[in-house]
Design a protein that fits this description.
The complex is a heterodimer.
Chain A (H helix, E strand, L loop, with lengths): L12 H4 L3 E6 L5 E6 L3 H26 L5 H8 L4 H8 L3 H7 L2 H5 L3 H11 L3 H5 L4
Antiparallel strand pairs in A: 1-2
Helix pairs in contact in A: 2-3, 4-5
Chain B lengths: L12 H12 L6 H7 L3 E11 L2 E7 L4 H10 L2 E5 L4 H13 L4 E5 L18 E9 L2 E5 L7 E4 H8 L11 E6 L6 H16 L7 H19 L1 H16 L9 H15 L2 H30 L4 H28 L1
The chains are: A mainly alpha, B alpha+beta.
Chain lengths: 133, 331
């Protein structure tokens, strides 16, 4: 890539006010660096990945309202986590976290267990129990 | 307190922290030099693992490896510490800052508030330097950022004790002793040999063979997984290749910069020629990303277009095979 070809497309970097560093060659073939504001192919890839997460979150919410899963799954998706990551944050086995997805099990969870989830998601127990709030 | 530390932006965090800490200690080592000596370049498909519900491929060595190899090959001694208790981790950090010693930290990205929201994923192998503290705030030199920044005590604790794969556990590191003169020549040769070995490894998911493997998978994705999932997977491949930290072209440009610098240092014309070749290969990786983005941008694509990008990868793999064989002979 030539220095003058380093893409300067609009991207999400703008919101944090920084440009990333790329390596490229100058007119004499010498390697140098150039800042880039973004490149469309990866901006689109990132945008799609975020949309995918939003879809998963929305889908989880619908299932919580329909009584098919517990709010824990919704908050997990909202925080871009999967069962493995969530399990390591709350300090439970993965099977246990999956069990807590069952609305019938979730209803009977102790305050101590609930508070572990609430702390990870940075919300109150009330917010954890009622996602429409 | 604030340590007199100069922040240099780099493409990749791990190289950047090493390069900046070396510079702070009076050794002028560029980012590409750290990357090359530490054998950072790689291609690896990691079977069975999924991140963001998509397959994982990496264009670089495992987190921490570049660092470890660089230190070993140049004779720099590093002190590394991990902690069970956040309080101990903070105390040790403060102690080092008191002693005027800037330290490297491994952190998770998800709670790194100065990153744009969209980039905050559960990735735990990010690196930064802490070079001081003012009131409640730690002064941070994050190598991928243009300027220095800061984090509160609580914010820093959160990222140092992020959970999940590669959990940092407060990981802190800094150089404690240096050789009188860095033996860069031998270190460069070791670094290059190691990279050639990995790229030409007879393992189906590593190096050149790994690229062919991914090409094969891409051909199958639309039929096996459906267009939506295939596009999601393809998007993740491009993100791994081009996301912040790669310097563009899946680290191929940084590696080309290393070969050019190494060629001059060793007086080896062949390396300088090979640097040009690596740049061209980097351009082909960019072409692949561009072509792939046309597929996932439109969201509806024919199997033919997947085959086309897979052909591009097969072509790159063939070129890299020849390239690394030549590189092996050039040193």
């Amino acid at each position: 890539m030539k220095k003058k070809e380093v893409p300067q497309d609009k991207s999400n970097l703008e919101s944090a006010n920084f440009r990333e560093l790329c390596y490229a060659v100058d007119e004499n073939g010498e390697y140098t660096t150039e800042n880039s504001t973004g490149w469309e192919p990866k901006t689109v890839a990132l945008k799609n990945a975020i949309e995918e997460i939003n879809e998963r979150t929305q889908n989880a919410k619908t299932r919580v309202i329909a009584g098919k899963t517990s709010p824990i799954e919704y908050y997990m998706e909202l925080h871009k986590m999967d069962v493995g990551i969530l399990a390591s944050y709350v300090g439970f086995w993965q099977w246990k976290v999956k069990r807590h997805f069952k609305p019938s099990v979730f209803k009977k969870l102790s305050n101590k267990t609930l508070s572990k989830y609430a702390e990870v998601f940075d919300i109150s127990i009330q917010e954890l129990q009622n996602i429409s709030k | 307190m604030e340590i007199d530390f100069t922040h240099h932006q780099s493409a990749h965090c791990e190289n950047g922290v090493v390069s900046n800490l070396m510079k702070h200690n009076g050794f002028s080592i560029s980012e590409p030099m750290v990357f090359g000596i530490g054998s950072g370049l790689l291609f690896c498909y990691i079977p069975l693992l999924k991140v963001n519900h998509a397959p994982v491929i990496t264009y670089r060595a495992l987190p921490g490896h570049i660092f470890k190899k660089f230190a070993k090959r140049t004779g720099v001694k590093m002190k590394r510490e991990k902690f069970k208790n956040p309080k101990d981790a903070k105390a040790r950090l403060d102690e080092n800052l008191e002693k005027n010693n800037p330290v490297g930290l491994q952190v998770g990205v998800y709670n790194l508030l100065y990153f744009p929201d969209e980039y905050r994923f559960h990735f735990n192998a990010h690196n930064m330097v802490v070079y001081g503290k003012q009131g409640d705030r730690y002064l941070i030199s994050d190598p991928v950022m243009e300027d220095v920044t800061s984090l509160s005590e609580k914010e820093l604790e959160k990222v140092r004790f992020a959970k999940g794969a590669f959990a940092p556990k407060g990981h802190m590191y800094y150089p404690i002793s240096f050789p009188e003169k860095l033996e860069l020549e031998t270190a460069i040769v070791k670094g290059i040999k190691d990279t050639c070995k990995a790229m030409l490894a007879p393992v189906s998911f590593v190096g050149v063979k790994g690229i062919h493997k991914i090409a094969g998978l891409i051909r199958k994705w639309p039929k096996k997984k459906g267009i939506k999932t295939a596009n999601h997977y393809l998007g993740q491949v491009v993100r791994m290749q081009e996301e912040i930290g790669t310097g563009g072209g899946g680290f191929r440009y940084i590696y080309a910069a290393f070969l050019q610098e190494a060629g001059k240092l060793l007086g080896n014309e062949k390396l300088i020629e090979l640097s040009k070749e690596m740049t061209e290969i980097g351009d082909l990786w960019r072409d692949f990303a561009l072509e792939a983005s046309r597929i996932y941008k439109n969201r509806s694509a024919e199997t033919d277009s997947y085959n086309k990008v897979a052909d591009q990868l097969d072509h790159i793999a063939d070129l890299e095979k020849v390239f690394f064989k030549k590189l092996k002979k050039a040193i």
